[in-house]
Amino acid sequence: xxxxxxxxxxxxxxxxxxxxxxxxxxxxxxxxxxxxxxxxxxxxxxxxxxxxxxxxxxxxxxxxxxxxxxxxxxxxxxxxxxxxxxxxxxxxxxxxxxxxxxxxxxxxxxxxxxxxxxxxxxxxxxxxxxxxxxxxxxxxxxxxxxxxxxxxxxxxxxxxxxxxxxxxxxxxxxxxxxxxxxxxxxxxxxxxxxxxxxxxxxxxxx
Length: 206
Ligand code: MN
Fold this sequence. Notes:
Layout: H1 27-58, H2 64-87, H3 100-110, H4 113-126, E1 131-138, E2 143-150, E3 161-167, H5 174-177, H6 181-190, H7 194-205
Antiparallel strand pairs: 1-2, 1-3
Helix pairs in contact: 1-2, 3-7
Bound molecules: manganese (II) ion (MN).
């Protein structure tokens, strides 16, 4: 049996300080994004878990369709943000390009790193409203595939493992770049932690 604490989500710590991604991501922007927005999805998920628990305890009906829609949205937000922080690294640590099995997989699928970067940038810029660009991995075909996620949960291929995700909700860049998503995406490429992305792929294909 899980302890009560284990049954709920917690905001994970960042793997670096709030000022670690300056000048590409400011301390204010990162603090707000992590402490308010990411926390919001943690709280939203836990609130829905508690709502389900209460309805089951009291044996009353819930609007399951809307409850599960909320849950999918909030869990998606929680998980994607947890991945996103780990995809980033201080500019000095970030190796400029992927290496090892990651670059092999990218080259096999996209033809070159430049082509992958161009396509990923295009889907990031093209998300209508709020969402994410993602590089995922299909274990059946052993191929990395792009995903353009709307909100946190729409257009997701179920069970595909995420390798690299980029938050393009305006809340992730408006302090630093106002409404200029393009500038934010350019900055993102300077702080990708390719080593972590490669390690994630290694764990997936093991
Ligand atoms: Mn976000």
